[in-house]
Amino acid sequence: MKSLPLLSVCLFMLVLVSVLPGCSRSSARVYVKVSGKVVDAQGKPVPAINIRFFPTENVDSFKVGHSTGSSEPRVVSLDYPLAISKKDGTFTLTMSGGDIEGARPGKYCVMLTGSKEQNKKIPLKYQNPDSPLDVTIPNKDVSDLVLKIE
């Protein structure tokens, strides 16, 4: 009869061991490397453009909590992919925290801004988070993404 509690404990441990790995995999975030080029309507490179990718699905999973102290309220911000285009128009995305290269797969709305002079060349429709420029990042690295300003 003493073996019954031992058997119960063994069965419980077996169930626990089989369930825990599944839980940890589901919460892991996947990031893929994303690079590309910003071009104008004629296909010419556009340098020094601020590029921000705002998620349009699963937005809550992009929220990050910050606390400035125990008595301060918690501030929630969005951790989104961003980049600045180089002289040749190329860019590589990193997460807004700066410590992760790439982006999470999914659908995004892309906002483009620049200096005062460059903003004159970028249609206003691209300069806000409701930009018509939509991008879907697949579950694999992307090295040829083209963002065309028309």
Protein architecture, described:
With 150 residues, this protein is of the alpha+beta class. It has a single domain, classed as Sandwich (Immunoglobulin-like). The chain contains 2 helices and 10 strands. It has a 5-stranded antiparallel beta sheet, with no helix packed on it. A 3-stranded mixed beta sheet has the order 6-1-10, with no helix packed on it. It has a two-stranded antiparallel ribbon with strand order 3-4. The longest helix is centred in the N-terminal third of the chain and has 25 residues, at 3-27. The N and C termini lie far apart (79 Å).
Beta strand %: 25-35%
Task: Tell me, rounded to a whole number, the average pLDDT.
Answer: 80
CATH topology: Immunoglobulin-like
Strands of the biggest beta sheet: in what spatial order? 7-5-2-8-9
Structural class: alpha+beta
Give the count of helical stretches.
2
Give the overall form.
globular
Q: How many separate domains make up the residues? A: 1
CATH-defined architecture: Sandwich
Which runs of at least 5 residues are low in confidence (pLDDT < 50)?
A: 6-26
CATH class: Mainly Beta
The string of secondary-structure elements, in order, is: HEEEEEEEEHEE
The count of DSSP E runs of length 2 or more, i.e. the number of strands, is 10
CATH superfamily placement: Carboxypeptidase-like, regulatory domain
Radius of gyration: 22 Å
Distance between the termini: 79 Å
Helical content stands at: 10-25%
The largest sheet, given as strand count, sense and whether it forms a barrel, is: 5 strands, antiparallel
